[in-house]
Specification:
single chain; two-stranded antiparallel sheet
Amino acid sequence: MAPKLIEFNGKRYLISEITDLTGIPRETIRARIAAGWSIEEAIGTPTPKLRRAGVGFNLLAFQGTGGGSTSQESPNITFSEKAEDA
């Protein structure tokens, strides 16, 4: 049996590659697709184990900010103290 390829954003990936990128087990991805989930939903929805406090999941593993799997929930950055000139 040939390996199952999943097409996403115009590229083809093995389920094992998607598992490595997202941390979602291959069985979970397969079950989600079999249940009628779209590819985007199947690989873009973290499992409860992958959800962590303070980590945003509004970006897919393939669309990150360059900072890994975390994203800032608020676009506003604030500083509590003014930096002194050296």
